[in-house]
Prior knowledge:
Elements: H1 5-17, H2 20-27, H3 31-45, E1 50-52, E2 57-59, H4 61-88, E3 93-100, H5 107-118, E4 122-129, H6 131-139, E5 145-149, E6 157-165, E7 167-172, H7 185-189, E8 193-194, H8 202-210, E9 221-222, E10 242-245, E11 256-260, E12 267-274, H9 279-294
Parallel strand pairs: 3-4, 3-5, 8-9
Antiparallel strand pairs: 1-2, 5-12, 6-12, 7-10, 7-11
Helix pairs in contact: 1-2, 1-3, 1-4, 2-3, 5-9
Amino acid sequence: MAPDTVSLRYFLVLAHELNFTRAAARIGIAQPALSARIRRLETELGTALLVRSTRSVALTTAGAALAESAPPALAALDRAWETARSAAAGELGTLRIGYSLSTGAETAPALVDRLIGGNGGLEVGAVPMATPDICPAVAEGRIDAGITRGQQPGRGVRRFPLRHMRVGVQLAEHHPLAEHAEIEIADAAAYPLRLPDRAANPVVHDRLSALFQDARPHPRFHAPAVSFDMSQRDLRDGLTLAPAGEAAATVQPAGLTWRPLRDAPGLTIYLVLPREQTPLHRRIRAVAKAVARELGWLPD
């Protein structure tokens, strides 16, 4: 049976001092208690570690060998314990995150950067996915977490608000409505409105189109010719508007701007985790809460 590590650490102090009084004082225990520890250690090993006399203490051959070999063994054990503690705290492992393209401009990178920067033992891989596929992938364990715009349907997952955004419109800088700090919904509805393909995100598509359901005449909706066209060429005509969350304002191509819609309900971005959570999932949740608080993503 291996000796207990406390007695082994006490022995190393004594091996360095070669004096029971000084060693006991350095450890912070009484000298008789230290002597008892060393005798028990010798009994467990079945050999003497010290040669004691009234005037001196010396290491036996076995004691000298233990004093040399024990430090690296204890250091390895300390690393093993620290690894176990890190794993239990969710700071170790491989993390797979799926995110919708609409969250990839600012929200997902901010969370991923914090997860990587704060956990040296955590490997993070993030991939864009079709929004309707994210919740099933989390529930089935194909990814560990997801980031979606809108509360997407799906079983076996839990959804946590990560970011609440105002809703507005993207438009050309020279568009007549760009002169306003806020745009009335009815005024925006008078222009052609570009909505993303409904198949890409039915929840958000329906939320955005519902903003204009009472507008008269009925607005003219159309889908972009190219999904996630970063140049936003269809907005450059100076006529078309694109309903979008305020995160769009951070990645505007030249010549475009974003304005909020007055009295429009907001959109929420969610962190999606499995219903049964491991320490790693709880770590993601804690980091997400910290990022949301620091960046002001959620109302107080």
